[in-house]
Amino acid sequence: MNINWYPGHMKKTKELLKEQLKLVDVVFELLDARIPLSSKNPIIDETIGNKPKVIILNKSDLANDTITKQWIDYYKKQGRYALSLDTISGRGLREVTVAGENAVKEKMNALQEKGRRMRPVRIMIVGIPNVGKSSILNRLAGRKSAKTGDRPGVTKGKQWIRLKGNMELLDTPGILWPKFEDQEVALNLAFTGAIKDEIMDIETLALKLIEKLWLTDKEKLMDRYKVGEEASLPLEVMNEIAKNRGCILRGGEVDYSRTANMVLDEFRGGKIGKISLEKPLILA
């Protein structure tokens, strides 16, 4: 599969980031805890420069807890502050607020010493589509301030939102990059829903996911779909899943479209299990 997706509003978002960066004190970069490497937009660091940044591994409720901790340790060794967040339950939300305040404490103290009137800490939140930016914004604001959805590209323009305490947050649309040099990265983004399903061959995508999970999380796949060990090839596994879940057309043929959508939806919803597709060890 050759996957690329770069809607026009994302080009505008890159320009918006550069334009608004001078107005903010700290940047929250949201990554998908299941794929921290693939969900990191390579243009973010070059765009924000030396601006203070907090890395937030969102959707930690869907990721392997042990591997998420390994990622946090990995960033810590690199001198970067990272924390995990589950916007569904709110676990980690307090740490996000504290991290934002600590990142700009020296700057705010310096302003106060100069006799400047204290103003809200201004935060910019950035990340790829469907990583949960609007969800964390609504959690921090304590109300529904931004549109949310399980589809990439829900947020289309900038929004300044007043948060609890002395903070303001700038929400921005999700931004992908024009071309994926590494198709493994593209697949990981597609598996987790960062790229619109409408532009892809869903049946092949699901087959690729089954192939990956059969190598990394076979027991979870077998337990969820009651697949036996004798099914070794991805297509055989998919056929077993279809049979066991009743995804069969008239005449006994496998309904691959229904099976594919089911597997992708259940993976994205955490029903197959808490699964991380990337480990920090590959970066060592």
Automatic annotation (TrEMBL):
SUPFAM superfamilies, per the entry: P-loop containing nucleoside triphosphate hydrolases
Chain sites annotated for binding GTP: N58, K59, S60, D61, N130, V131, G132, K133, S134, S135, G174
GO molecular function annotations of the record: GTP binding; GTPase activity
GO CC aspect terms: cytoplasm
Subcellular location as annotated: Cytoplasm
Residue ranges of domain CP-type G in the record: 14-178
InterPro entries with a match to the protein in the record: G_CP_dom, GTP-bd, GTP-bd_ortho_bundle_sf, GTP-bd_ribosome_bgen, GTPase_MTG1, P-loop_NTPase
Keyword vocabulary terms for this entry: Cytoplasm, GTP-binding, Nucleotide-binding
Protein's GO biological process: translation
Cited PROSITE patterns: G_CP
Functional description taken from the UniProt entry: Required for a late step of 50S ribosomal subunit assembly. Has GTPase activity.
PANTHER family for this protein: MITOCHONDRIAL RIBOSOME-ASSOCIATED GTPASE 1
Family statement drawn from the similarity comment of this UniProt entry: Belongs to the TRAFAC class YlqF/YawG GTPase family. MTG1 subfamily.
The name this protein goes by in its record: Ribosome biogenesis GTPase A
Lineage of source species: Bacteria, Bacillati, Bacillota, Clostridia, Peptostreptococcales
